[in-house]
């Protein structure tokens, strides 16, 4: 069960803090955030946003992941082992979520706050995952997941909580 001591509403920005040189997941998230902050800020902002596009492209290539620059991402996102993560541009990720490697958010998937998505999970939208939910490794989720639930399996079903 998820540690409910982590907020589903208030972002913990320390989870995104870059502390070492080689933290490609955190650097990819930083590029996304800086791009979103720069776009639409006049000529200087457009020029700077192009830099962050190239930076994001580089870290996406290093991670072999696809996190679109227009995706809505809440603060405190952790990409643990950020390889092979594919996130649809219409997906929305809540605060303090954690996504492991080889995860796919296909279509308009909405993750609530503090959702942990296990390695290899596939979430095929449209669907909504409630706050403090846990998606098991290799689960295939095709339906909404209630808040506080743990789901696993193919197709995914609630195994506890919710």
From TrEMBL:
Keyword Glycoprotein (UniProt): no
Annotated GO biological process: cysteine biosynthetic process from serine
Catalytically driven reaction(s): L-serine + acetyl-CoA = O-acetyl-L-serine + CoA
Broadest EC class assigned to this enzyme: transferase
UniProt cross-references to InterPro entries, sorted A to Z: Hexapep_transf_CS, LbH_SAT, Ser_O-AcTrfase, Trimer_LpxA-like_sf
Superkingdom of origin: Bacteria
GO cellular component terms attached to this protein's record: cytoplasm
Record-listed E.C. numbers: 2.3.1.30
MF terms (GO), sorted A to Z: serine O-acetyltransferase activity
Keyword line: Acyltransferase, Repeat, Transferase
Family: Belongs to the transferase hexapeptide repeat family.
Protein's name in the database: Serine acetyltransferase
Source organism of the structure: Antarctobacter heliothermus
């Amino acid at each position: 069960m998820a540690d409910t001591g982590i907020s589903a509403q208030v972002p913990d920005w320390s989870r995104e803090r870059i502390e070492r040189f080689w933290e490609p997941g955190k650097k990819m998230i930083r590029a996304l955030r800086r791009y979103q902050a720069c776009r639409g800020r006049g000529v200087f902002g457009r020029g700077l946003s192009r830099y962050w596009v190239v930076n994001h492209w580089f870290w996406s290539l290093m991670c072999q992941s696809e996190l679109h620059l227009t995706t809505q991402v809440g603060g405190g996102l952790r990409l643990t082992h950020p390889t092979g993560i594919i996130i649809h541009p219409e997906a929305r990720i809540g605060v303090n979520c954690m996504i492991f490697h080889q995860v796919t958010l296909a279509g308009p998937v909405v993750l609530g706050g503090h959702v942990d998505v296990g390695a290899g999970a596939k979430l095929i939208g449209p669907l909504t995952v409630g706050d403090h939910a846990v998606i098991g490794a290799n689960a295939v989720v095709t339906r909404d997941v209630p808040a506080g639930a743990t789901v696993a399996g193919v197709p995914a079903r609630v195994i506890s909580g919710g």
